[in-house]
Amino acid sequence: MQLFLALFVMAASVSAAERPSSPWSVPFGFGGAVCSGTTSTALPDRPSSYYGIEMVPTKRVQGTGNGVGFGKVTFSSSPYGVAVSPSGTYMVDITMALRRIKKPKKGFLTAWVTKDDLSETTRLGVLDDDFRISGKAAWNKFLLVVSLEPTDEPTAKWSGPIVMRGMSRSGMMHTLAGHGPYQAEPCAKYGF
């Protein structure tokens, strides 16, 4: 029993020492305890699998090909328990942090949230010096996109190349079209 306990303690200390080298060790506070309105600075291994969005580099912009990052989705607070948009969809808070990317010599790294079919896009804003940003979304299924934009103007439209992208868990859900009793219905009709 003592040998097992000693091995367990050694394994725990080794994994804690290795944690900063993990691509998911972005100092972001995921999984940290919240006390008195402050977030713990503990470094987690990964964001929650249900509320975390892995950001994937496109390798189209120099200095960003080795980038890693993630977004976190939480339900917006409301005095009524659930925050909803005027259209009746859940409001969510999005926080995103990127790492292992270089600040561009020209342009601004800008975050966007868009519907999964790209029919609507909302600008979250320019990433700060630590490559972080927070914002809100009122969609169930959405994509997080970081692009390199020529201007930091808040009213500017998305025009630059995509640096990183990620999809919400609900965005990965698929219809039953083309499967089982709905086999006659083509998936492509629904964008799959």
Account of the protein in words:
The chain has 192 residues and is mainly beta. It has one domain. The protein has one helix and ten strands; from the N terminus they run αββββββββββ. The chain has an eight-stranded antiparallel β-sheet, with no helix packed on it. β6 (108-115) and β7 form a beta hairpin. It is globular, with a radius of gyration of 20 Å. It starts with a helix and ends in a 25-residue tail after the last strand. Residues 1-45 have low confidence and may be disordered.
Q: Stretches where pLDDT falls below 50 for ≥5 residues?
A: 1-45
Helix run count: 1
Taking the alpha carbons of the first and last residues, their distance comes to 54 Å
Strand percentage, roughly?
A: 25-35%
- Kindly state the mean pLDDT as a whole number? 75
The percent range for helix content is: under 10%
Content-based structural category: mainly beta
Strand order of the largest sheet: 7-6-9-10-3-4-5-8
The whole-angstrom Rg is: 20 Å
Instruction: Count the domains.
Output: 1
- Beta-strand segment tally: 10
H-E string: HEEEEEEEEEE
Give a quick precis of the structure:
With 192 residues, this protein is mainly beta. It has one domain (52-190). It is 9% helix and 31% strand.
